[in-house]
TrEMBL record:
Residues 20-171 form the Glycosyl transferase family domain. Gene3D superfamilies: Biosynthetic peptidoglycan transglycosylase-like (1.10.3810.10), DD-peptidase/beta-lactamase superfamily (3.40.710.10). One of its GO terms (molecular function) is carboxypeptidase activity. This is peptidoglycan glycosyltransferase.
């Protein structure tokens, strides 16, 4: 049928060297039809493509289209080269062209299935016919099957005709396709290609199109969050969208433990039932009420540390939504940030140990340390006072350092004064060690510790920028002040941009004027800056229109307006003075003027255009009488620089975001985090300071049992040491106290070995009550709107398993909840009967690695096997 329609002598053995790329008569006819079309002559446009060039077109041309004559020539050359690769004899190549065309010809697309390629898929998708059965019918001679054979012929022939315009013929043009099929059947009969009885049977038959709702082409399988995450990761790994991923000849092996994944998902969903929640002890103060259980979402992940990486055994939540709290969120997870702060602290102590531990006491006494650098001062004093300079003992002593828990101090951070509070008022008078503060999650010691980390980064960093505060004549101060002006100006510019975006010019002007307290002088300053070329008449109308009627009648004579027009004209005042006169921020005034002249500008364009104005607005900083103001701005920039250093340290241990909020509040969670990233940090601590990439895919098997059979397995050598072993040991001990006697003590002893021995357990809790607050003078809160509420427990169990459990309430309804991290701790405790069989060490665990990854990777890579690299994220 195909050759009868397209090229009848394509497979003729009598022409062993014939080229399938060009049919010269057809090409000439097509060229003439294109010329006739160009000259507006009557006639039908003809195509010049052979099967060989059509293959090249839909496989390799942009979007499968021939958009120019040059592209058509390229298709013909490519088809010719491909044909003669095996030599001058082309019969085998021509046979391959026919086979490949039948197997891959585009046949439009179907809702719920996608693109349709090849006769086999076309029969199944469009007619619900089986390819093998169709072949058997067409090859058979049983007279009893003549009607079925005729229908099979019609179905195949109709698809061959439809390939010319598949989206038309297989959709709205079905009657037209049926008529064309009848015509071709008669031609086949007249040519003697097919016996008359079969032609008559085919003409008498009628195709039935598949009902995709009643008979879907793809049967959906039950999936879960873990599988969805694996699919997304695989799509990113292969740089293919999910649509294309579903069409690859590929089998992927996941690290997920299927049975445990299912049990954990069912468990989390059952927590919405008040009776089940009560049975688990989830109701009560700082937990839930019977009416609130259904509103809380839970997310859980569990990893197993193995030689080649941290295998994800469970990743699930209680929703069926595609959003993944574990990996797709940025949430304030409260006091879990204290674990990151403590990790950075111990790493800094380790650096000081490496720098100074080898020096004699006499040399240590000569080291100059800035009064603000408390960490270096403590480290030097410790090494002077103790003969044992081992890192383990020094880290132990560092955890026993005491910090005040008093909330009475105001901290200059983030460009202003801030006060912080403890969760429990009874902690306010304490002076706990850092070990105790972590165990009981006391805020103020960690605020003060973070301040020490910032100062360490400032004073121990390159060039010691803090020296700028001593010498007002240091030329570097000018550079820092310029950077402050640029940063501060950009921040204000963004605030004003949000006010004006998505508004037309008049609406922007109205918005600006609504924020003013208008007087004639202020309106004059605004108008003459925004519209410097406007006439006196236009100026008068503007001022009178926007000034309250009482003031207008009393003072706005024509003479007064003439004076204002002249006094506030272009050049009379600079931008800062114009803003001062109008009592608006100068950058607000500048941005409005910029948008009047560039209404379609982007924010990045506004930032680029305001480089000079941002410096001009803060020119007062550079004047001699403002040294204290300059110092406070320089402190702000030094703090920002210190947080850049701290951010780099956090990223090395898996922090997922591109920046930290440069504020001491980062110590209690204001910079945000992700549960999966916290789990990765705990996994590094559990793995003795070596960071292993999380593994969700064990192996990939492409095109099994074909000439392209390829298997890809994990590269086992991906671990990277990111902290000294002694630091990891000290952190494990500190985390274990949180479970043994701290905020997570309710889960202590819940997970046991088969013989009843409790598994060692540690972790960190955190609660995030995330709100938008409007603050008035003196720090008074004018309004507070809840965004969400979170409670997280990041943990390790035994020597190999770790993970997180998060409770999450999104939106304004979160203001009705008061649960703390006691909730996820209690939820995890209730999972003990489910998890315990999978946590047993050695051969007793049910978290066995799949057989495909149990190979010893001690030899060179083998042919046909590639290695899958997992980059740290």
């Amino acid at each position: 049928s195909l050759l009868f329609i397209e090229t009848r002598d394509l497979l003729a053995p009598a022409q062993p060297q014939a080229t399938p790329a060009v049919d010269w008569p057809r090409f000439a006819k097509a060229a003439w039809s294109q010329l006739a079309k160009l000259l507006h002559l009557p006639g039908q446009t003809a195509g010049g493509s052979t099967l060989a060039t059509q293959l090249e077109k839909y496989r390799h041309s942009p979007d499968g289209l021939t958009l120019s004559g040059g592209e058509k020539i390229r298709q013909m050359i490519s088809a010719s080269v491909r044909t003669y690769q095996g030599g001058p004899q082309t019969l085998a190549a021509r046979q391959n062209i026919v086979r490949d065309y039948l197997n891959s010809v585009p046949l439009s697309a179907v809702p719920g299935h996608g693109e349709v390629h090849g006769i086999a898929e076309g029969l199944r998708v469009w007619y619900g016919a089986d390819f093998n059965q169709t072949n058997a019918l067409l090859a058979g001679n049983d007279a009893k099957n003549l009607a079925q054979k005729g229908l099979a012929l019609r179905e195949v022939l109709s698809l061959m005709i439809a390939q010319r315009r598949p989206s038309h013929y297989l959709s709205k043009g079905r009657d037209e396709l049926a008529s064309l099929t009848d015509s071709h059947l008669r031609l086949l009969g007249q040519s003697g290609e097919i016996e008359p009885t079969l032609i008559n049977a085919a003409l008498a038959s009628k195709v039935t199109y598949r009902d995709w709702q009643q008979q879907p082409t793809i049967q959906p399988i039950e999936t879960n969050k873990g599988i969805s995450v694996v699919r997304s990761r695989l799509a990113a790994l292969l740089n293919r969208p999910l649509y294309d991923l579903d069409r690859l000849d590929l089998a992927a092996t996941s690290t997920l433990q299927s049975e445990l994944q299912t049990q954990a998902t069912d468990y989390l969903k059952r927590l919405a039932d008040p009776a089940f929640a009560a049975q688990l002890g989830l109701l009560g103060p700082r937990l839930l009420t019977p009416t609130s259980t259904a509103q809380v979402r839970y997310s859980f992940n569990l990893y197993e540390m193995t030689a080649d990486g941290a295998r994800v055994r469970v990743q699930t939540d209680s929703t069926d939504q595609p959003f993944d709290i574990n990996e797709g969120s940025k949430l304030e997870l409260g006091s879990t940030a204290k674990l990151r702060v403590l990790t950075t602290y111990l790493q800094m102590i380790s650096e000081l140990h490496e720098r100074y531990a080898g020096q004699a006491p006499a040399a240590l006494k000569k080291i100059e340390v800035n009064d603000q650098d408390r960490l270096t001062r403590w480290a030097v004093d410790y090494l002077i006072q103790h003969n044992d300079h081992s890192l383990a003992n020094m880290l132990d002593a560092a955890l026993d350092r005491q910090y005040s828990a008093s909330p009475g101090e105001a901290f200059f951070t983030g460009g202003g004064l801030h006060r912080f509070h403890n969760f429990r008022n009874e902690d306010n008078g304490r002076n706990p060690t850092l070990r105790d503060a972590l165990r009981e999650s006391i805020n103020l010691p960690f605020i003060r510790l973070m301040r020490d980390l910032v100062r360490y980064s400032t004073y121990q960093g390159p060039n010691n920028s803090a020296e700028l505060l001593k010498d007002d004549s240091d030329p570097r101060r000018q550079e820092y002040l310029a950077r402050f002006a640029d940063r501060e100006g950009t921040t204000f510019l963004l605030r004003f941009w949000k006010k004006y975006r998505n508004k037309d010019t008049q609406a922007r002007l109205d918005t600006f004027l609504d924020s003013m307290h208008p007087t004639a002088m202020r309106l004059a300053a605004v108008h003459r800056y925004l519209l410097p070329q406007a006439s006196q008449q236009s100026f008068n109308s503007f001022v009178r229109a926007h000034l309250p009627a009482t003031k207008s009648a009393e003072k706005l004579t024509d003479a007064r307006l003439d004076t204002l027009y002249i006094n506030y004209g272009p050049g009379a005042y600079d931008l800062p003075d114009q803003g001062y006169i109008a009592k608006v921020h100068p950058l607000d005034l500048w941005l409005l003027g910029y948008l009047l002249n560039h209404p379609d500008a982007t924010f990045s364009q506004a930032v680029a255009a305001s480089e000079h104005e941002r410096q001009e607005v803060y020119s007062w900083l550079f004047k001699s009488r403002h040294k204290s103001a300059r110092d406070s701005r320089i402190r702000t920039m030094l703090e920002i620089e210190a947080f850049l250093d701290i951010h780099q340290r956090w990223q090395q241990v898996g922090y997922p975001f591109d920046h930290l909020v440069p504020s001491l509040a980062t110590a209690i969670g204001s910079s945000g985090d992700r549960p999966a990233a916290l789990a990765e940090l705990v996994g590094t601590i559990l793995n003795d300071g070596v960071r292993q990439p999380p593994l969700r895919i064990d192996s990939l098997h492409f095109a099994a049992a074909t000439p392209y059979d390829t298997r890809v397995v994990n590269d086992p050598d991906r671990g990277k040491r990111v902290m000294p072993s002694a630091v990891a040991t000290a952190l494990r001990a500190a985390l274990s106290q949180v479970v043994d006697a701290g905020t997570a003590k309710r889960v202590a002893g819940s997970f046991k070995l088969a013989d009843g021995t409790p598994l060692t357990m540690g972790g960190k809790t955190g609660t995030g009550d995330n709100r938008i607050e409007a603050v008035g003078a003196g720090g008074r809160i004018l309004s507070s709107k809840s965004i969400n509420r979170t409670a997280t427990f990041v943990f390790y169990i035994g020597d190999q398993h770790f993970g997180t459990l998060t409770a999450f309430v999104p939106g304004s309804s979160a203001q009705n909840f008061t649960f703390t991290s006691a909730l996820p701790v209690q939820v995890l405790k209730g999972m003990a009967p489910i998890l315990s069989p999978y946590l047993q060490p050695g051969a007793h665990t049910l978290c066995q690695a799949p057989a495909s990854t149990s190979v010893e990777y001690t030899q060179a890579p083998q042919p046909g096997v590639s290695y899958l690299s997992h980059a740290f994220e």
